[in-house]
Design a protein that fits this description.
The complex is a heterodimer of chains A (420) and B (340). Chain A is an alpha/beta fold. Chain A is built from 14 helices and 14 strands. Helix content of chain A is 38%, strand content 19%. Chain A is globular, with a radius of gyration of 23 Å. The longest helix of chain B is centred in the C-terminal third of the chain and has 27 residues. The N and C termini of chain B lie close together (8 Å). Classes of the chains: A alpha/beta (420), B mainly alpha (340). At the A-B interface, helix 1, helix 3 and helix 4 of A face helix 2, helix 3, helix 8 and strand 2 of B.
């Protein structure tokens, strides 16, 4: 290894010179010194990391929705004349691979911003890198409350209502309609499950609504029959099912099988998918409820809605592999629309400009969100959507009812992330 | 044409091919020097992401060097090296994070821990032979991710932990990724030299003898179980060191990075690279890093398909792995140049 040493010394003396991969910076004007990598007069390069393979590949449909919206925008002349180039990479829902792919997007593809990482673990893994490289990681597809309260990672921001906000919606509904309700909670024993459970416990504190039984399960568990049986013995009025799709379906099945217990079955929104709901025996499960914030393309109520019409049409044209009824595709489309709105609101066409824009949204409307729900962020508030509507499962489909519950107005800002 | 050239296998110290000491490639020193120069120049010439990829190649190369000791040198199958990698990766995550130890401690610490775990597991496991060892090590690989998740207070559970990497000292003027690359390169060079040394030693010859004919080796006075156990521990140590480097390079560890799939991919990469060759680990690591990344451009399900096809092709066409292929090619070139 002598040659290696001989070469190493002069190489070290070269002193960090590098022939490739320098960041571009705006040189003049009021935006001087800010990073302009990936954005030119007529194009913006955007990268996303999605689980296209692996256990969570169902979330890959989000990328299809995003691609469809960017295709739709580009056909209409782009964002302020800039075409959006969208580069998608697959992380297989593995956090370490998400970091590798994010590096690839930033260092090799030289994207302007990382628009979406999916899932709490992958997002948590990428955010340190994003903060170190000062690359915006915007509107990540996870509802963990930590993105909104994390001052150490200003480059990362969430999008959908946080799990805490969702828990508050259920709590508020129960406080208003059944102030003495007893609640049994089934939750997934990870950050997601605990975030929602703790949020709910917090929101019902000092009210007549009481949590009388709790059971947790691991993602690796084969089923939740035992947990449900224990919860049933509490005889609670409400079952709050904080689950992911596979376990939500099992919880419905067991609930249907236990005839002596017919609670109001609240299922959190991430578990709601057409496949899960198709498996539910509605005659045997009591009332089923969840929360929603975006329009459901399968709902006949929106059949003539121009926004949903544009979504269906574009999806067919730019991402024909995706099912328009999929919540995930709609999620991607809606988030992409929010992203484009943020791009339009940049004061400087730079990464810093985007970071500022996503943190200063004031009631920005997005046409595929439910009426009355808008995007708002501000200093100390990193949660773009904090309002939801309750939704009831009737006649094989979800129908939102009541009015929009703005958890920010009712409960105040989320202060602490309950998990890490 | 000598035996190494014809079969692609390394010249053996023992067995029926042992007598042939002719070299396949007449300029080993020059080639090594050129490679060393190229390896040192890389971080200054390439895009940061390419530097990152090459760093990963070196990291996996170190792990495969270790795995080759078990697979190539002692002829056993380990499906559990992902677990040692995980151990090595969590050492810096925990030691330099919550425990607040300095970075330089992490590397020897994880080497020591992995060596100890390898020894402890090797004692019972290597008295078992062939497929039994494979199953025992498979069990280790299966058990590790849930165990990491279970001790969430220390390991961060399924959410994983961020790992801070040693940053470049200010006198060097290097970027962090360049520094890390050179650091990993230095570790890989030492690891490579140590393996070469080991294989040239008495222990190396004993291992080759055990692999080729255990009964004969035993008759000659080689203590089979002791050798196998020790080599398994060495191998685990390499995987542990690779795990630490991995954590530094990626900057994040989570249980999902160390599933049983990783162990299987490592074994496949060892076979594809060439299990009994010093160049094999590097070629295997290149296969592991670049083939899936390159195949991803072609479509969603393609990486798995392409990797599978490459494995089948290599095993059919070049039983001694890519390294064997390289050796045959080198022999052909040298012959054409009129050295033989």
């Amino acid at each position: 290894m002598l040659p290696a040493v001989v070469v190493l010394l002069p190489a070290l003396l070269l002193g960090g010179c590098r022939l490739a991969g320098a960041d571009e910076v705006v040189r003049t004007g009021s935006c001087a010194g800010q990073q302009s990598t990936g954005i030119t007069r007529d194009a913006i390069r955007v990268g996303g990391v999605y689980p296209l393979s692996g256990p969570a590949s169902a979330y890959g449909a989000i990328a299809s929705g995003v691609r469809a919206y960017f295709g739709y925008v580009n056909a209409g002349g782009g964002v302020d004349g800039r075409r959006i180039e969208f580069v998608v990479r697959d992380d297989g829902y593995q956090p370490a691979r998400a970091v590798e792919e994010a590096r690839r997007l930033v260092e090799l593809e030289e994207v302007f911003a990382i628009f979406q990482t999916v899932g709490t673990p992958s997002t948590a893994a990428v955010r340190d890198y994003a903060a170190r490289r000062r690359v915006p990681q915007v509107f990540v597809a996870t509802g963990a409350s930590r993105w909104g309260v994390d001052a150490g990672h200003p480059w990362t921001i969430g999008y959908q209502p946080s799990y805490v906000a969702e828990a508050r919606v259920y709590a508020q509904y129960l406080k208003e309609t059944a102030p003495q309700a007893t609640v049994a909670v089934l939750y997934q024993n990870d950050d997601f499950g605990r975030d929602l459970r703790d949020g709910f416990a917090d929101a019902v504190r000092d009210s007549g609504v009481r949590v009388v039984a709790e059971q947790s399960y691991e993602v690796t568990d084969p089923g939740v029959q035992g947990q449900l049986a224990n919860l049933a013995s509490s005889g609670a009025d409400v079952l709050l099912s904080v689950t992911t799709p596979k376990f939500a379906a099992q919880a419905f099945a067991v609930d249907a099988a236990i005839t002596s217990w017919n609670p109001l079955h609240i299922v959190n929104s991430v578990a709601v998918s057409p496949a899960v709901m198709a498996s539910v025996d509605v005659r045997k499960v009591g009332e089923i409820m969840s929360a929603a914030y975006q329009k459901d393309a399968a709902d006949p109520k929106w059949a003539d809605d121009p926004a949903v019409g544009a979504y269906r049409e574009s999806l067919l044209r730019y991402a024909p592999e995706a099912d328009p009824a999929s919540q995930q595709a709609m999620f991607g489309w809606t988030a992409a629309q929010a992203f484009v709105k943020a791009l339009q609101r940049m004061r400087c066409p730079t990464r810093e400009g985007l970071r500022e824009a996503v943190r200063h949204l004031d009631d920005v409307p997005v046409d595929t969100l439910l009426p009355g729900i808008t995007l708002s962020t501000g200093p100390g508030d990193g949660f773009p959507i904090e309002s939801m509507m309750l939704s009831r499962f009737e006649d094989g489909r979800w129908s939102p009812f009541g009015k929009v519950i703005d958890t920010r107005a009712v409960f105040g800002p989320v202060r602490t992330a309950s998990a890490g | 044409m000598n035996i190494a050239e014809r079969t692609g296998r390394r010249r053996l110290a023992v067995g029926w091919e042992a007598g042939d000491r002719r070299q396949v490639w007449p300029w080993p020193r020059l080639t090594l020097a050129v490679l060393a120069v190229a390896a040192c120049a890389v971080p200054f010439l390439l895009n940061p992401y390419r530097v990152f990829q090459l760093t990963m190649v070196l990291v996996y190369g170190v792990a495969l060097l270790g795995l080759n000791l078990v697979v190539g040198q002692s002829g056993q199958i380990s499906l559990g090296h992902g677990a040692f990698l995980a151990l090595g990766a969590y050492v810096p995550a925990v030691a330099t994070g919550p425990l607040g130890l300095p970075h330089p401690v992490a590397l020897p610490l994880s080497a020591l821990l992995a060596f100890g775990l390898g020894l402890a597991l090797g004692l019972p496991a290597l008295r078992l032979r062939g497929v039994y060892l494979a199953v025992v090590t498979l069990a280790i690989a299966v058990v590790v991710p849930p165990v990491i998740k279970r001790f969430g207070a220390v390991t961060g559970g399924s959410m994983g932990l961020s790992v801070s990497a040693p940053s470049a000292p200010s006198w060097s003027g290097l970027a962090d990724d360049q520094w890390l690359y050179l650091l990993v390169l230095a570790v890989a060079a030492v690891a490579f030299a140590a393996v070469r040394n080991l294989l040239g030693s008495r222990a190396g010859r004993a291992l080759a003898a055990i692999r080729e004919n255990p009964e004969a080796a035993e008759v000659l006075g080689v203590r089979i179980a002791a050798h196998r156990t020790l080599v398994f521990a060495w191998s685990a140590m390499y995987a542990g060191v690779a795990g630490t480097l991995y954590a530094w390079v990626v900057g994040f560890v989570s249980p999902d990075s160390f599933t049983v799939t990783l162990s299987i991919v490592l074994l496949a990469a060892a076979v594809v690279g060439g299990p009994d060759s010093p160049a094999g680990p590097l070629l295997g690591a290149i296969f592991m890093t670049f083939v899936p990344a390159a195949a991803q451009g072609a479509g969603d399900a393609v990486p798995g398909l392409v990797s599978g096809l490459v494995i089948i092709l290599v095993v059919c066409a070049a039983p001694a792995g890519l390294a064997g292929l390289l050796r045959m090619a080198a022999g052909a070139v040298a012959r054409r140049l009129g050295r033989e």
